[in-house]
Write a structure and sequence with these properties.
67% helix, 6 helices, disordered N terminus, mainly alpha, 110 residues, single chain, 0% strand
Length: 110
Amino acid sequence: MLRQLELNNGNCIGKRQCKEGSAMTQLTPEQDVFIDQVAGAIRHAGLRQPALLILDAGRPLTFIGGQLLWLLQPALSLLLPRKKISQMAQILEKPEGVLALVTRLETQDA
């Protein structure tokens, strides 16, 4: 559903593929690998459907979520590596990063 919406708006879809005339930035190969890891961890935990629901419903707020991760990074670094926190914040700040995560969650078989 979200993927079709993005196709209609002419925004980026898939891993690094953008339609002509799109001003959106592309994801780096490192971000692609990280998105694959996050999608795999979500699937492994059995949270694929809840994650898709949250990402779809909260899509307008993902930038704020990324900023919140930057704000909480010092405290979260006690539980998770700083690099993973910053990578997730960067993904959430970019609409194409969120779309790539949603696309991976939709296409990967459980």
